[in-house]
Amino acid sequence: MTNNSFIDGNSADGVRKSLIEEYSSLYVFNLRGNQRTSGELSRKEGGKIFGSGSRNGIAVLVAVKDPSHEGTAEIFYNDIGDYLTREAKLATIRNLGSIEQIEWTRVSPNTAGDWINQRSREFDSLVPLNDGVGAIFKIRSNGIQTNRDTWVYNFSKKSLTKNVLSMIEIYNEHLERYGQVIAATEGRQAQRDAVARGLIETDPRKIKWTRDLISSLSRNKFIAHDACHYAIAVYRPFMKRWLYYDRDINEYYKESIYPTSAHENLVIAVTGTGSTKPFSALMINLLPDLEVISKSQCFPRYWYRRPDPKESAGLFDATESPDSSWVREDAITEEALSNYRKQYQDKSITKDDIFYHVYGVLHSPEYHERFEQDLRRMLPRIPYPDDFWAFANAGSELGELHCGYESIEPFPLEEVEKTRPVSYWLEKLRFAGSDKTRIIYNETLELAGIPPEAHRYQVNGKSALEWLMDNNTGYGIRTDQDSGIVNNANEWSKEVGDDRYVVDLIKKLVTVSIGTVEITENLPKLGL
Q1: Sign, Cα dihedral of 504, 472, 268, 285
Q2: Which one-letter DSSP state was computed for residue 474?
C-alpha cells in the first residue's frame, strides 16, 4: 500500500523510470481518494481508503522481479473508478480477493516517463510562454509567497498594521537580546543560522519564524517598519486583502514585476506545475498571492529594471514609472511580436494584442480538453489558432471582466429579507444546503435566483462564488488557532465605506461568471 502520487505525479517521473528498470512486472491498483484536490476533481476521487487517517490517494503496488526477464518491466494497471465511496471501494477489494481477479490494462510508457494520462507530442511544437525558442514572455514569477499569511495579510488595514508592528517589535527585541552572541559567532553562515535557531522564542502568538527571518537574525539585520509598504493584493480569486509588502517580511516575490505596490502591471497567473488543481488562468492587476491560482506562475505585461547610472532618462522608450529608481519595459519579446505578425500577415498586431490573445487561448474549452494532460505537467504553450483577433478580442473582454469585477453591473439576485431590519454583518457565507441557487448571507438575509451558469465558470478548482465562502480563506470571521489573530471581513466593508460590499460582490461575480461562460463558449475552434 502506498501513496498513489507516483503513478502520474510530475515529481515522480524519475521514480517511474527507475521502477521499470528495477522490476520485471508491475501491477498497479489505483484506489484513488486524493482529497488534496478540490471541487469536481475531489468528488471524482471518491472516499479516502483510510478514512480520516490520510488525505492522500492510495494505490496497491505489486512489484515482481524475475531474473530471467529481459528489458524494462511490463506494467499492468487498474483504476477502481470515479465517485466511489470508501465503503464501495472496500467492498470491491473484498470481492476481488486477489490480483488475479483484476482486469488489468497493459500500459506502455512514453519517452517522458508517463504511464497514464500521457502528454501529447503536439504540445511540444506550440509556442512556449517563457522558456525556449520564440518564447512570448521575457520573464515570469511565482506570486507572492509570505510563509506567514496570517501575520501579513488581513481584511483590515488597521488590524494588519497592529500585527505587523507587533511582529517586527518582537523580532527586533530578539535582535537586541541576542545580537552580540550572533555577531560574535565565527564560522559559516549555516553555523550562525543554527545558533540563531537555538536562541529564538517560538511562541506562535508573538511571531512566525521562517528560514529567511532566522537568517536575517543571524546576520544581525535590523527590520524597520515602513508605512508605505501596505498594499491591496489579490489573495484568492476575486478576493482582495491588505498585505504588508516587504522584502524583509515576505519570503519571495520578484521585484521586477511589482517593485512596489505603486507600480502598475497586469499579469496572467496560471496553474503551476505540480498543482493538484485543474488548469486555470486569471488576469490580475494587483499584487498576486502564490495561491491566487494554485502554485501560480505569473506572466506580466511589463517588467521593471533599475536604470543604469550611465543612462539618461530621456533615452528610454519605457513608460514613466511612479518611482524614478525603476524603469518599465515590455515583457513581450520582440521575437514574439515579429513571429505573430509574420504568422498572420498582419503588421497591426501589437504586444497588447498578443497579451490578450494569449489570455483568450488559455480560456478555450477546446484548448483545455485537447491538452489537459500536458497542462497538468507543464507550463502552457500557445498554438497559432486560425483566427488571431477572435482570441485577442475575447481575451480583452475577459480581462475587463476579471480585473474590473468590482465595477461590473450586479446581477439582479433576489434579496430575501428573513427579518427586519436587515443586517449586513457577516459570520460565514453558505449555500442553502444542496440548493446552489440560494446563498444564506446571515440570519436576516438570503440571496436567491443564482442561475446554473454562475457555477459553470471554474477558476482554481472552484466557482467564483465558492471561493467567497471557502472555509479557510473566504469572507467571514476567522480566528487563527496558532496566533490568535482575527481576520474579520466586516472590517473590509467598514474600511471601504460600504456595508453591502459582500452582498454586491456576490451579485457582481454572478455577472462575471455568466459573462465568462458566454465568451469562452463562443470562441472559435483553434483550427489546428
Answers
A1: positive
A2: S
- 3 state SS for 397-443: HHHHHHHCHHHCCCCCCEEEECCCCCCCCCCECEEECCEEEEEEEEC
Can you spell out the DSSP letters for 318-378?
SPPPSSTT-EEEE-B-HHHHHHHHHHHT-TT--HHHHHHHHHHHTT-HHHHHHTHHHHHHS
**Residue 509 corresponds to which cell in the numbers above?**
461575480
Give the Cβ contact number of residue 380 at 10 Å: 25
Q: Phi and psi for 141 in degrees, rounded to 5?
A: -155, 155
Pairing type for strands 239-244 and 2-3 reads unpaired
pLDDT tens track for 14-42: 889 899 989 999 999 999 988 877 667 78
Amino acid at 287: L
Predicted pLDDT at 314: 47
Kindly state the cell numbers that stand for 391: 482570441
This prediction's pTM: 0.87
Comparing CA positions, the residue from 236, 329, 358, 353 lying closest to residue 286 is 236
| Grid coordinates belonging to 175 | 535582535
For residue 166, the surrounding DSSP H or E stretch is helix 157-183
Cα 455 from Cα 441, distance rounded (Å) = 18
Are the C-beta atoms of residues 199 and 178 closer than 8 Å to each other?
yes
**Lowest model confidence (mean pLDDT) among 86-95, 212-221, 258-267, 311-320:** 311-320
287: left (phi over 0), alpha (psi -120 to 50) or beta: beta
Nearest Cα to Cα of residue 464 among 411, 528, 424: 411
